[in-house]
Amino acid sequence: MPKGLSDFIFRGPFIFCLILTPMEIRYDIANSGSDLKAIQQLQQDNIPQSISPEELKAQGFVTARHDLSLLEKMNTPYPHVVARANQQIVGYTLVMLPTFSNSLPVLIPMFERIASLSFEGRPLDSQSWFVMGQVCIQKDFRGQGLFNGLYMELKARMSIDFNYVLTQISKRNPRSIRAHEKVGFQVVEEYWDQHANEQWVIVLWDWT
Fold first, then answer.
1. How large is the C-alpha radius of gyration of the chain?
2. Cα distances (angstroms) measured from residue 163 to each of 12, 133, 176, 186, 208
């Protein structure tokens, strides 16, 4: 049943009007083991192996998989940002500091590339930055502003200590590339990873 619409139910001589209002979304941080498990489940539901080729192309997908131990370590001292509907996590952005550069083999080439990049004439290695390790939104809640909301919450919490946030996106995921550009990211690097057999785009959001 569509959210935010009225549905009319006819019973005998009476007409009942059921008003459905949009579910309230609250943005905060992952603060429990159950939150991390919910993030991991949402991640698992959106890897390429879990969705159809048609959905992969139309809706996008996530690439990296994090075990609970790594998610917990990454959650300190800067916790992951989540979106909740009725206390259920329906979206997240992962915070990944440079200290985790060797934690996932698929991300090592990205961290190496970032360490060699400059932005507006300044080497990134001399600036304060972190990686947004992954963003994902539950299918039923897409197209309702959660992508932008998650990033605005991330900026509000992290821009005090960091000048830039970067992430990488598969070239096979144009939906995600466009969504990041709308938020404010810009492409700073593109490279081929022969081990992952993947063309990657590195994007940066300038908070200075």
1. 19
2. 64, 16, 22, 14, 5
Q: How far apart are the first and last CA of the chain?
A: 43
Beta pairing class for 164-170 and 129-137: parallel
For residue range 48-104, list pLDDT tens digits in order.
555 556 555 555 556 677 899 999 999 999 999 999 999 999 999 999 999 999 999
What's the confidence (pLDDT) of residue 5?
A: 40
Give the rounded percent of residues in the chain with a pLDDT score beyond 70: 80
Q: Which CATH number fits domain 24-206: 3.20.20.140, 3.90.550.10, 3.40.630.30, 1.10.3290.10?
A: 3.40.630.30
For the chain, give me the number of helices (H) and strands (E)?
Answer: 6, 11
pTM comes to 0.83
Domain boundaries, the chain: 24-206
